[in-house]
Write a structure and sequence with these properties.
- The protein is α/β, with parallel strands linked by helices.
- It has twelve helices and ten strands.
- The chain has two domains: 3-148, 3-Layer(aba) Sandwich (Rossmann fold), CATH 3.40.50; 159-273, HUPs (Rossmann fold, 3-Layer(aba) Sandwich).
- The protein has helices at 12-28, 44-47, 58-82, 99-110, 129-132, 134-140, 169-172, 175-185, 206-216, 231-242, 254-261, 267-272, and strands at 3-7, 32-38, 89-95, 114-118, 145-148, 159-163, 188-194, 222-226, 246-249, 277-279.
- Helix 1 packs across helix 3 and helix 6 packs antiparallel against helix 11.
Amino acid sequence: MKTILVPTDFSKDATEAANYAAQLGKYVGASRIVLLNSFYVSIYESILPSVNFIQLSNEEICQKQESLLRRLRALKARLELLVDGSNITIDYHLSNLPLLRAIQQTIEEQEIDLVIIGSTGENAKEDSVLGRNTIGIAKTSTIPVIVCPSQTKFTPIKKVVLACDFKKVTDTIPLNELEEILNITKAELLVLNVDPHGHHLKPEAVSEVSALQQMLKGFNPQYHYTDDMDTIDSIIQFTDTQEAQLIIALPKRYSFLQGLVHNSISQRLALNSKTPVLILK
């Protein structure tokens, strides 16, 4: 977790995520934070001007780019105040690629270890490009992604919740990445199984539970079970009750992430949750 990528569109949520990244980076001993803004001008805007494409002159494009660079420099300056006293270097980059491609290219070229993004629910008042692309970023990123819900404030990570369904645990849990975050933070691990149908009590589940316990025994985790039918709400309630600072979701569980950033599924989360979600890969 030495190099952190923070895509930004300068929205409120994106700025809060950048603040979180700076404070997290200082907390875990990161060495570098890269700020990224994507300013993509489609070729169709120049050859097929229409009501769907606002045609920009070369002069207007240059002015827009300079404006974005000024905002990146200003954000860099603010974050440098947050990481004062650490060895973190903050860089910035303005890409002319579409957002998802810009993120992936930066991951590859800058050897990024972690992406941190802000998220705005679909019904939120603020129009955030990053918020609209949260699921796409989480799906296409080849490295772990932390999604910071609106109003996220950094607090030292003392407890983490691993949401797990106890199915094919050896295939679905990226142990190396999980070990890294636990070793860096020294956080207490709480494993939560949302199981309204009692799957973990069935004979065929015994081997999976045993395999998980063997995988995680070095971290002395606590195991918790709930039979709540609402998976999203039960995870959020458990996290709040335990006062955990991070939720860890497993790869390919994007339905879970969709619930976390969709107001209609959990209004309480969208309005009040301050718990970031780490999507492992």
